[in-house]
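re: that chain from earlier
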Amino acid sequence: MDKKLYTIIIYTENIAGMLNQVTAEFTRRMMNIDTITASSSSVEGVHRYTISLWGEEDSVQKVTKRIEKKVDVLKADYYTDNEIFFQEVALYKLSTPVVLGNDEVSRIIRHNTARVIEVNSTYTVVEMTGSTEDILNLYDKFVSHNCMLQFVKSGRVAVPRSAQDVLGDYLFNEDYKRKSIKEKNK
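^ sequence. v structure.
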């Protein structure tokens, strides 16, 4: 089987230690996480982890199901790139003397829809939002012009292409189930 890049989106209760519990599932299966982003979600008190990794669908599906069985995990789903919208953010710290001495570097910045966020006599910081491929291509261009001082890239942020609100639908159905059970028990 071929390995593909998958993105797993996990919604959990916002409690200490959840990230460790989630990442432990990948460690147990010897699966390497490529990127991970943790943030709050659109629902108060609910945290969201967006994890990207290379793997075979069967393995990714199994680890996602294991994660979803955890008590404090509300929902977990996995996606391929064509099933989500995703972006990453990168910061490039460049040598200002090289940037000012080479018009091509300025053209590269503009051509790649990156933006300069800081300039001083020593360094220039450039920010870019885009796909992993676009971010790494810009990195390679800066390296080829000998102006790269530092580089950092975030993990993915992603939303499914589906019109469904996965978490909202899930929480609504769970509330509905709880209310039905309470009424039956009266």
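The two ends are 53 Å apart (CA to CA).
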